[in-house]
Amino acid sequence: MSALSIEKVWKEYGDQIVLEDVSLTVDSRAFVALVGPSGCGKSTFLRMLLGQERPTRGNILLDGVALPSEPGADRGVVFQRYSVFPHLTVLGNVLLGKELTASRYKARLLGAARRSAVEEARQLITEVGLAGAENKYPAQLSGGMQQRLALAQALIMRPKVLLLDEPFGALDPGIRAEIHTLMKRLWHETQMTVVMVTHDMREAFTLATRVVAFERRRDRPEEKERYGATITKDISIWPPRIAGAASIFGPDRDGPVASPGHRRDDLAPLGDI
Amino acid sequence: MRWINTRPSPGAQLALTLLPFALLIVAYALGSAARLAENANDKLLPNLAGFADAIDRMAFIADPRTGDYLLWSDTGASLVRLLSGLGISTAIALCLGMLIGMLPYLRALLSPFVAVISMVPPLALLPILFIAMGLGETSKIALIVIGVTPTMIRDLALKALELPREQIVKAETLGGSSWQIALRVVLPQILPRLITCLKLQLGPAWLFLIAAEAISSDAGLGYRIFLVRRYLSMDVIFPYVVWITLLAVLMNYLLDRIRIAVFPWSELEKQA
Predict the structure, then answer these.
(1) How many structural domains comprise chain B?
(2) Nearest 10 degrees: CA dihedral of B117, B122, B124, B126?
(3) pTM of the full structure
(4) Is residue B104 less than 8 Å (CB to CB) from chain A?
(5) Interface predicted TM-score (ipTM) of this complex, two decimals
(6) Are B173 and A76 inside 8 Å of each other by CB?
């Protein structure tokens, strides 16, 4: 299980109130999209879920237990940029999580443990459509491929919650549509709850089970500092999308999708999968 | 076409690269010929034959007093000092730089201190080193270390600090501890910078080495130059200077090749 409950959370930086009185309960295996104008604190909210920042007031609980005050292995993350390590190959990037958890001091795996981890990593790499690129460095990959890699890297930890901070914002529309299909499939197949910050309404409504809008209720210049943003809309998608269950209303990349064959940002000579 | 858009062809590029060197040699040859025409015993600008003779004497004929081949024994003595100095500096800079860059507590403790220490002119400390450590190898190596380390520490700390916060957070979500993140995320990413940093510090390191050797030594490239200065032996000084330059250029080149060979991704990042 991986239900999140956010109870009356405030976030202030000095005098500036960024978020006020945010309460939200996210069911296990939900896919929540956070939308709202720039600078309304969506990313701050996500960073608090991540543990990178702490709420000034209020509590955030994961499965009824208060979140630890630093990022940890139960919450995976994909940022818009800098999510992958430039000094590791694709395989190295995906393996890293395994190596850090399994080998406390060397942070490296050897022998049989390494072979089985490599096996698992390769499987995941294939799953996100990067087969054949295992030995490339991120600088040799396109933006879309880097984000696929970031997803694989986060997923190998089997996080309870996956946090996405505008992960596909910098991709062009065609590639974004492909990675949406992938994202949807991963959400159906894994056990995780997903919280995604996005600017793209279409993306929010295509992927999420629930769209939550952040907004400042008072936004006049003289009020800006003392009034933060809060949740103004909370829309459950209808017909409901349920993780793992195919939707019968599925024209727009809905439901679990079979691999659609060749993708635009795949390696050229790979052919159909 | 605008000047900023005109580019030389590969051939022209090579010619342009070689031109300043050729001009320098020609200018020297002309000056030397003019002086020697006036006075065949002129010592200030010897001609090529003079250089060949001096190089032969220094490099290939054993010194009658010690039995050493002076150029090589000088080079050996200097390189041992230079490399041990740089080696010690690198080790210190890597440890402290990473710690300062990664740990806010150590940054608060050491960062201002290192910034102040790096402002101390190292040559002004040379007398203190000679008094405290004697005139032997220790004080010379110490001078290089003192001169080079603070800058390297600051540079590496800055680089460690520059790593995007997202990467560190990502590593935390992959279950990394501080030690593991240092080992697998920060260290490999600042090693290429360490090599670049070492490259940039070669110049100062040579400077400190030659200064220390000039004042007190019994072997070394800097020592020899300052020794033969008394006899106006330009025929020895010039080849020594060229030799030192060559050594520095060679080290520079090797460090770059090492970086590209060991950290291929650092070159990719640069192009990206």
Answers:
(1) 1
(2) 120
(3) 0.83
(4) no
(5) 0.85
(6) yes
